[in-house]
Design a protein that fits this description.
Layout: H1 4-28, H2 33-50, H3 58-81, H4 86-104, H5 111-120, H6 128-148, H7 153-172, H8 174-187, H9 195-217, H10 221-244
Length: about 250
């Protein structure tokens, strides 16, 4: 079971920022922003690899963050111009970034493996150094969000979001980034009291169950956790909200 401990820590770190940010994303009606920004961050990682930079070095992190921040600033700009179609714009940005990945990897003999890692992640093989710097980055995001969210504005939200997603997509992959952000917040959308705590509970249960199932069955952890998150969310939506409070928002 020792392999599950670092993986669970990685999941808890991702949830620490994605649950509160996910509630905000759902309230703003920009559900697919995480897919778009995470995919753009992944393009940064792919480009850094093509330049021959060390896979886990700081240059790659800078490239991924720069790409994500550029994407976030672009989406902040489009929301100012066309707020009524922002979700559609986000979808277009995502599909463009997603289409760019296989193009950039077309001549890479390991391109298929890299693309799979970007989407599915390798949470069971997370490195200790990755956990440490990820924890530091998430701490900064959480301090900024809970301490100054009333003052950061729309652009600040997009930039914080880009920072969190850049870390997460390299830690757990694109599918889990989206599931961690949206599924717990969606499951608790009708909860009035303690919504944030309930959303964290759904996320933790989903990650723990998924890791147990993955290890027991030798099935890839990322896709399994996506499913267990959805199942835990469905269970909470059906039964847990009865005990959490009536409809409303945090």
């Amino acid at each position: 079971m020792s392999i599950a401990v670092p993986a669970l820590i990685a999941g808890l770190l991702v949830l620490s920022t994605h649950v509160p940010l996910g509630i905000q994303v759902l309230n703003r009606g920009i559900v697919f922003i995480d897919l778009a920004v995470a995919q753009i961050a992944g393009i940064g990682v792919i480009l850094a690899d093509q330049f021959g930079w060390e896979a886990h070095g700081w240059a790659v992190q800078v490239a991924a963050l720069a790409a994500a921040l550029a994407g976030a600033l672009l989406l902040n700009f489009t929301e100012k111009l066309w707020p009524e179609v922002q979700e559609a714009v986000i979808g277009v940005v995502f599909v463009l970034a997603a289409s760019a990945a296989p193009i950039l990897l077309a001549e890479n003999p390991h391109g298929g493996e890299q693309l799979k890692d970007l989407l599915v992640g390798q949470i069971l093989w997370v490195r200790l150094d990755a956990l440490l710097w990820s924890a530091a980055a998430y701490a900064g995001v959480l301090i900024a969000w809970f301490g100054f969210r009333g003052h950061i504005g729309r652009a600040g939200f997009y930039l914080l979001f880009a920072c969190a997603v850049t870390v997460s997509v390299q830690l757990v992959g694109l599918y889990l980034v989206f599931a961690s952000l949206i599924v717990p917040s969606l499951a608790t959308r009708t909860v009035n009291r303690n919504r944030l705590a309930c959303a964290y509970g759904v996320g933790i249960a989903g990650y723990a169950a998924g890791l147990l199932v993955s290890i027991a069955t030798d099935v890839p952890a990322g896709p399994v956790i996506v499913w267990t998150l959805a199942l835990c969310a469905s269970g909470f939506a059906a039964f847990g909200a009865v005990f959490a409070g009536p409809a409303g928002q945090t």
